[in-house]
Write a structure and sequence with these properties.
Two copies of one chain form a homodimer.
Chain A lengths: L8 H9 L6 E6 L7 E7 L2 E7 L9 H13 L17 E3 L2 E7 L4 E2 L5 H18 L12 H10 L1 H7 L3 H15 L6 E4 L8 E4 L2 E5 L6 E4 H12 L9 H14 L4 H28 L12 H11 L14
Antiparallel strand pairs in A: 1-2, 2-3, 3-5, 4-5, 6-8, 7-10, 8-9
Helix pairs in contact in A: 3-7, 3-8, 4-6, 4-9, 6-9, 7-8, 7-9, 9-10
Chain lengths: 323, 323
């Protein structure tokens, strides 16, 4: 649910007039995304998304995000294309916020992904990595292991009020994950937040990737680990190995995993569960009661973390290692 | 900000397949309206709004609302047209909610209406009344004076915690409004909630009326009184007589007010302020802290009520009585 910043009539008119996109026909806030304000802008020349970047996005990262979308589009990946104004600027300011106009992408995100969606996702993710690995800009992952520890420490006195013993459990996990974390793996720009609501489908086919605002330079296999967490568990918390198998097979149909990536997968998946758990815990503990946006329940990721802790090798995720 | 009800992938697919509207291209929740869940549905044949009616709307009223939109459209008024499914049904059920698919209307609502918007609104409202007066269905106004009193009484012990003396002041107002309320005036179906976010403009011209879910059979002049409250005050609480004059002149350009309507206008405007004040007070007092939708501040309408109390005749609203 996201429209945090209202745009005045005059500001919108002046903004649109500085682009070569035709006459505005409609302008509506979209109830999607929790980080930024998103508007659907229709003109007589097409449909666009106007995103106003709110506090959580660091303005200095925006040229990277916009450049990445432009690069991936040019490589044939289905993702929104930033639109430049008449002066050639992609990054603008509106209503006191940095903002960008991007093309509208057809398609819908899948509320409950099925096996065939996971297969499509896997193949699409591999194509994304093959392209993004050639992108010339870099951005450090702001949510690495050190950040997980800092976030946990910042709310450490409240973790046990959530579940007794959880604090000790999580710090022990952190230590184990750090010990087995791989030093080096094939790397490049990853999406890093590829949840179902960031992937569009049309007629069962993947039609678009959106929301690149966590993209960063990191291990490709870590992106897969995030997807295993986000796409392959059922709402009752159980792991669906059929979905994971489809995802991994789809991925390898376009990009073959290296042995080191396969070995590291359980640790990466455990780390990915930790990464989303710590931010959800933080939001849960720090969101004032009555806040506009409801924080996501951390319990889901506590369960996932515990699941990955028991995994010994990637075959348990359904990875097929052909010779 | 409104998407209260999520629609599953399967439900949406089955729903769209029962209409002759083509293939779905996108489906997004819209952050507008506080009563219902609204989705923008784009197909290869056009754009539509899918509204899921939430608890506040009485299901038995829906045939009236949908029939009214259809009638007004057929009379050339710019308003959404309900779309029938292949079986001829306009009213359906989706995700456990009554729902309707209506055509998408181009245009934008004006965040800060100017004098020329008020002039357009006045003329448009008169055209709406000329047409809606011929609509064959009736719906009683559920928010008449008796309802105002009931609502106030239901939260009477909390009113003074809002402002000392307010309770006595409001009940005294109720009595005075009741005494001077007109017995009969030209009547027909009125919109009854014509706030700026329910009127679309394109290039300065009124391009659409939306959200007919308070429409009812009542005095036409009461609709004007609601608009005087909703369009002709500045954010600092001051009355802008230039806007009111433009609104009333615009109205009379299409439908001439009768002497009895002119005489009653101050009472109707005072009543309209009371009507929105009591529902805002009720929501303010009864919305649990931390609710998803922030209730609107009643203070704005306390000020408006006090303003109208001092008005002696319609000329003070800028009404020009030509002979």
């Amino acid at each position: 649910m996201a429209v945090y910043t209202e745009v005045s009539d005059e500001d919108l008119a002046a903004f649109v007039a500085s682009y070569d996109i035709g006459k505005v026909l409609s302008f509506k806030g979209i109830a999607e995304g929790v980080e930024n304000s998103n508007y659907l802008l229709r003109t007589d020349q097409g449909s666009f998304i106007l995103t106003l970047y709110e506090k959580r996005v660091d303005e200095r990262d925006l040229p990277f995000f916009l450049g990445l979308m432009e690069f991936l589009s040019s490589e044939g990946l289905p993702c929104p294309l930033p639109v430049s104004d008449r002066a050639g600027n992609r990054l603008r300011t509106l209503a006191g916020r940095p903002c960008a106009l991007i093309t509208f992408l057809d398609g819908m995100w899948v509320r409950r992904p099925r096996v065939e969606h996971c297969a499509e996702l896997g193949a699409g993710l591999a194509r994304l990595h093959l392209a993004s690995g050639r992108f010339h800009m870099e951005r450090q992952n702001a949510l690495l292991m050190t950040a997980w520890r800092e976030i946990l420490e910042s709310c450490s006195d409240k973790i046990d009020s959530f579940e007794t013993g959880l604090k000790a459990e999580l710090f022990a996990d952190l230590g184990e994950i750090a010990q087995s974390w791989p030093d080096d793996l094939p790397r490049g720009v990853i999406h890093a937040d590829l949840f179902p609501d960031n992937v569009f489908f049309l007629g069962g086919k993947l039609s678009g990737f959106i929301d690149f605002y966590f993209a960063c330079t990191d291990f490709f296999a870590y992106d897969i680990a995030i997807c295993l967490n986000a796409w392959c568990f059922e709402t009752d918390g159980s792991f669906n190995i059929t979905k994971a198998k489809a995802l991994l097979r789809g991925y390898q149909s376009a990009r073959r995993l290296e042995p080191a990536e396969i070995t590291a997968l359980p640790t990466l998946a455990r780390g990915a569960a930790m990464r989303f758990l710590v931010t959800r815990l933080f939001d849960w503990i720090n969101t004032p009661e009555g806040a506009f946006v409801q924080p996501k329940d951390p319990v889901e990721y506590i369960k996932k973390l515990r699941f990955h802790r028991r995994i010994r090798n990637a075959a348990e995720y359904g990875l097929e290692q052909s010779t």
